[in-house]
TrEMBL record:
The keyword ATP-binding does not apply. The chain crosses the membrane at residues 12-33, 39-57. This is TNase-like domain-containing protein. Residues 75-204 form the TNase-like domain. Keywords: Endonuclease, Hydrolase, Membrane, Nuclease, Transmembrane, Transmembrane helix. GO terms for molecular function: endonuclease activity; hydrolase activity.
Length: 255
């Protein structure tokens, strides 16, 4: 029911309640019509109950429109996923978009786009997720930057770290979000596992990288030099047109 209709019904009910109340008060004052007074009293109580119920529905709709305040979310808060936009972006209650930190799933015209979106949909669509913030809270498009977790169904089942899951299964590649780098090493290892096993977008189905590049660990970074000054950098342009890929050769990475 639309809010306008709901509030119109409430207004009519209020007029009827006040009218019956006035009639009942007049009968009580005159000491007449005991049967009518009882009947009007029952009707009045029912109408008041109906009015209260409609008011509760109206209030809940208003609260839903406000949406959750997740500027300072704690690890215990859960948020309902109302839509999966693509393989690395979801929408939660309040129509707020959440961009998963550290991953980059294929875009709409790229190989494995549908598979990545379908997997994220399978994981979180219509479910409650836990969000974790790093340093920067939003990106330039106003989307929340978060790590996303799907809680286990019971105490014996571990949470699913959605960002890492998508990388490990080959549904996305790594994408650095400086200064949000809390799980960069974990993400690189997950991506390397998918690359070695030729999963998802690293498979021959997509021809995502050249055969030479598929045999090495790759990291795409944004405006950030390699952490190891002794490593050599070989630059390549992705066939997807998504930006420059940098191959780190002879680089020693500490855990």
């Amino acid at each position: 029911m639309k809010k306008e209709h709901l509030r119109a019904i409430k207004q009519y009910l209020l007029v009827i309640i006040l009218t019956i109340g006035a009639i009942l008060a007049g009968l009580v004052a005159a000491g007449q019509g005991d049967k009518i007074k009882k009947l009007l009293g029952v009707i009045l109580i029912g109408l008041i109950g109906l009015f209260a119920g409609l008011s509760a529905v109206d209030l809940s709709d208003d609260l839903a429109d406000i949406g959750p305040d997740i500027t300072e979310e704690s690890g215990d808060n859960l948020y309902y996923v109302i839509e999966v936009i693509d393989g690395d972006t979801i929408k939660i209650d309040g129509n707020m978009k959440v961009r998963l930190i550290g991953i980059d799933a294929p875009e709409g015209n790229e190989c494995y786009y549908e598979e990545a979106k379908d997997e994220l949909t399978r994981l979180v669509q219509g479910k409650y997720v836990r969000l974790e913030k790093d340093i920067d809270s939003v990106d330039g498009l106003g989307r929340l930057l978060r790590y996303v977790y799907l809680p286990g169904e019971d105490l014996t089942e571990n949470d699913i770290f959605v960002n890492e899951h998508l990388l490990r299964r080959g549904y996305a590649q790594t994408l650095s979000f400086p200064p949000n780098k809390r799980y960069n090493m974990l993400f690189v290892k997950a991506r390397e596992q998918a690359l070695i096993q030729r999963k998802g977008l690293w498979s021959d189905e997509c021809d995502y990288l050249s055969e030479f590049e598929q045999e090495h660990a790759l990291t795409r970074e944004i405006n950030e030099p390699p952490s190891d000054p002794n490593c050599l950098i070989k630059g390549n342009i992705s066939s997807r047109g998504a930006g420059k890929l940098r191959l780190l050769i002879n680089s020693t990475v500490s855990p």
